[in-house]
Amino acid sequence: MAPRLSVVIPSRDCLAYLPDAIASIRAQEQLGGAIAPGSIEIVVVDDGSTDGTGDWLKAQAAHDPLLTALVHAPAGVGAARNAGIAAARAEIIAFLDADDQYLPDALADRLALMEERPAIALTFADVMSVTPDGALVGYQFAYWPLFRRWIGGRTGLLPLGENAFAMLLAETVCGTSSVMTRKAMVQAVGGFVPHYRISEDWDLWLKLARAGEVWCSTRRATRYLVRPGSTSRNMETLVSSAQAVFDTNVPDIAAVPQPWRGAAVARLHAGSADLARHRGDKAGALRASLSALIAAPSRRTLRELAFDGARLLGLR
Known about the structure:
By secondary structure, the chain is an alpha/beta fold. It has 2 domains: 5-229, Spore Coat Polysaccharide Biosynthesis Protein SpsA, Chain A; 252-312. It has 13 helices and 10 strands. Strands 1, 2, 3, 4, 5, 6, 7, 8, 9 and 10 form a 10-stranded mixed sheet that branches. Helix 2 links the parallel strand 2 (40-47) and strand 3. The longest helix has 20 residues, at 260-279.
């Protein structure tokens, strides 16, 4: 019998974290609970690790029929996830990075919802970010102002409705290690595009938002590890990938409703400003900050414009 859920984990040189990630998945299964033992398949794709991950995985898989180990040459996280999706036996799949962990009861409510509503293409939940020493960085939903206001005081499972695409375009509220989706729908829209490198997940969520319903859970489902030097900190790649994803998925920005349109455009300009600062281009940073403020006036965009203006004038 096929498992109810397959969790896909891409891993490269994360053997120090991977056992805890797997343990957090197994902890979702409880005798007499909403997810019974034996319900979850784990598919780990070793993407060219040099720390012994491949050998460790093969040893674990030898005595765990619900653990599939795929050992590949390095191809990037998008290609690794695609390989895991192809190997998954369940209709419903989830993603967890090797250095992240599920919090208790992270999956049961959304798994039941997706089993009841086949039109759902994508669900995600809140994410708790921490440093390697366990210090709290923050919560994903609380960080993004439009999404925070949209949730208001509501709790539980919430449909994003007809503006799902616009909401996911404007703010990156959908953390990959909280996502649950459908294998068939992911493959129908083409899966992860490997050459995007950093923004391949955002690209897929936008495509899925056009393919079916999108729901979120206000439950904090995932412990996300913020590590120095992680791939998400590569600013050059992040900015170029984000622009490519935007251009591919948004042929007509005027068709995106406000306030999400302005927020989406402002976020791209803010990324360009960050990159200009990184390069030491003070005038470029000021121009990008001004564009962000015009697109979506806010205290944050005004503060960044003032900062860049002061730097250009030599006041900072």
